[in-house]
Amino acid sequence: MKSLLSAKNESINLVVGAGFSGAVIAERIANALDEKVVIIDKNNYIGGLASDYMTRSGIRVNKFGHHVFHTDKKFIWDYVNSFSNFCPVSQKTFAVIDGIKVSIPVNISTLHILFPESLAKKMEYKLLNLFSYNSEVSVDELRKFNDTDLQFLADYISDKLVFPYSAKLWQDFMPEIERKQFPYAFIRISNDSRLYTTKYQGIPKKGYIDLMENMLKNHNIELCLNTDYNYMISKNFKRIFFTGSIDDCFNYKFGMLQYKSVKMQFENIENPAQERRLLVKYPQDFDFSAEHNFVTNDAGISAKEYWTDYIYGENERAFPVLNKQNCELYNKYFDYAKSFNKIYFFGRQGNFNTCSMADAVEQALNLFDNLYGNSSSNYMVDSVVDNCR
Ligand SMILES: Cc1cc2nc3c(=O)[nH]c(=O)nc-3n(C[C@H](O)[C@H](O)[C@H](O)COP(=O)(O)OP(=O)(O)OC[C@H]3O[C@@H](n4cnc5c(N)ncnc54)[C@H](O)[C@@H]3O)c2cc1C
Fold first, then answer.
1. How far is CA 81 from the centre of its chain?
2. Residue 248 falls within a domain, yes or no?
3. N or C end of the chain, less CB within 10 A?
């Protein structure tokens, strides 16, 4: 088949990045508008941070740790389910605090494991009296009460979980990072021990790569892996949808945005545990931050998650460093980008913000709607559904 790149580029859309953001916009343009799309990725795989693979022993492993698709929005759930069946998953996450493995985010049952029963009961009583059941109360909110038990609880969650865990990620940047970037800084007023409490949550039955392959299955789409945007920069496309980092798009003209990266160290588990999707965080111990287990009945892989500096060309941009300096730099690039017609930045890197997979899907769908005036609740993907079920 003749490559689209040899055709007249003015009629072709370029999508940079084949993660969730790029795959959604490419799918929409190809299916709903019947326009040509070239989608490129600098890596030799699609899926971006959500990428996964199957080992020879039949274990599906996420390259960058467990990924659960979660949303409260039905139209997003319906959209992704039209490309793959999903298995329902309630991801449970544990943290080892003072040597005790407890479920996080901290909830009422966590208190009964961490503290002597009399103290746990006292705290439970106070929390249930002050806050509505099923709500999530931040440690800052707890501190507002003139109550020694609640102050103690707030300090305990901060000192033993939130701060040490965040410090492992942000390292030298820690003092500059806004507190809202620190995970798990709240208590759940219930016994709900799931990581996510959204209405819809699950993982694609055949994995994320399969889901995105189904999205990209269209005669209008050409996928080019191992292809950096540099290679396309001189070509004239109809529109460019850029889901990489905005500084990269402009050849670091004003300087480089900082990110943290993530490195997974995989090893086989000799005697796989029963918990198939075990995820344990280690705020206090070890130099790795978490351990992910991917296990079938008789085989297992364990992945230790390390947080490292992002180094250009060596690893992936996983977490934008949201300090004042980087936010100003991002805004400078964003203002500069306004002088260019028909180039759009979105996604985790394009927006220089953390987001979930569902957020990435929603941003891409919204962008499509804004540009082409479709309605978010009515995606015409029936023909694709038939292909992949
Ligand atoms: C450790 C970890 C765990 C997570 N767990 C969850 C979870 O459980 N649930 C959840 O909802 N979300 C989770 N997320 C977030 C989720 O992975 C991302 O938000 C989502 O995948 C972002 O999709 P994206 O397409 O915007 O970006 P990405 O997945 O980063 O894709 C961007 C793509 O662009 C490509 N690219 C960049 N620059 C160029 C260039 N110059 N030329 C060509 N290609 C380029 C990259 O190679 C990449 O493939 C997690 C993230 C991390 C880091």
1. 18
2. yes
3. N
- Tell me, using a 6 A CB cutoff, whether residue 365 lines ligand 1: no
Mutate to test the pocket of ligand 1, among 353, 357, 367 (most ligand atoms within 8 A of CB): 357
pLDDT tens sequence across 315-363 = 999 999 999 999 999 999 999 999 998 999 999 999 999 999 999 999 9
pTM for this entry: 0.94
Question: What number does the ligand 1 atom closest to the CA of 195 have?
Answer: 8
- Summarised one tens digit per residue, pLDDT across range 31-47 is 999 999 999 999 999 99
The structural domain count of the chain equals 2
**Residue 307: CB within 6 Å of ligand 1?**
no
Contacts 24+ apart (CB under 8 A), 5-11: 5/38, 5/222, 5/224, 5/235, 7/36, 9/235, 9/236, 9/237, 9/238, 10/236, 10/237, 10/238, 11/35, 11/36, 11/238
Q: What residue numbers bound the domain in which 102 lies? A: 93-188
pLDDT tens digits, one per residue of 97-130? 999 999 999 999 999 999 999 999 999 999 999 9
50 close to ligand 1 (CB < 6 Angstrom): yes
| Single residue among 188, 218, 244 that ends a domain in this structure | 188
Does one domain contain both 210 and 328? yes
Only one residue has tokens 């060309």, namely 313
SS3 272: coil
Q: Locate the ligand 1 atom nearest the alpha carbon of residue 230 and give its number.
A: 41
Residue 113 lies in a domain: yes
| Tens digits of residue pLDDT in 53-80 | 999 989 999 999 999 999 999 999 999 9
Rounded-to-integer distance, Cα 294 and Cα 61, Å: 6
- Asked if residue 294 has its Cβ within 6 Å of ligand 1, the reply is no
Whether the CB of 349 sits within 6 Å of ligand 1? yes
Domain presence at residue 272: no
CA of 66 to the centre of ligand 1 (A): 13
- Establish whether residue 243 lines the binding site of ligand 1, counting it when its CB lies within 6 angstroms of any ligand atom: yes
